[in-house]
Amino acid sequence: MPKDRAIFQDEQGRGWLVEIQYGHPSPTELGIYAARFQCPEDPAEPVRVGFLQIDAVESGDEEMLRDALAESDPAEAIG
């Protein structure tokens, strides 16, 4: 089973949790998955959503994870 979550630090040194969102329409055949980013150290920071290569999560590549975080958007409530 592939690793589907990782913890990494942003440029400010804050810890972020990234989790793969299975079932989201994304080109998984290319290794690209939807992801949810949460900063437990800063509750005022909104949850963010974006896309990333699953290799970044599996390997814990912080540079790739920071790039995916930078390209992500704040999540919006449905309904």
Task: Give an account of the 3D structure.
With 79 residues, the protein is α+β, with helices and mostly antiparallel strands. Helix content is 20%, strand content 34%. It is built from two helices and five strands. The protein has helices at 54-59, 62-71, and strands spanning 5-9, 15-21, 32-38, 48-53, 73-74. A five-stranded antiparallel β-sheet has the order 1-2-3-4-5. The longest helix is centred in the C-terminal third of the chain and has 10 residues, at 62-71. It is globular and about 35 Å long. The relative contact order is 0.25. The model has no long low-confidence stretch (mean pLDDT 92).
* Structural class by secondary-structure content: alpha+beta
Question: What is the alpha-carbon Rg in Å?
Answer: 12 Å
| Strand order, largest beta sheet | 1-2-3-4-5
What's the main sheet like? Answer: 5 strands, antiparallel
* Residue-averaged pLDDT: 92
Number of strands: 5
Instruction: Note the run of SSEs as H and E.
Output: EEEEHHE
Number of helices: 2
Low-confidence stretches: none
The shape, in one word, is globular
Oligomer: single chain
Report the helical percentage.
10-25%
Alpha-carbon distance between the two ends = 33 Å
Beta-strand content estimate: 25-35%
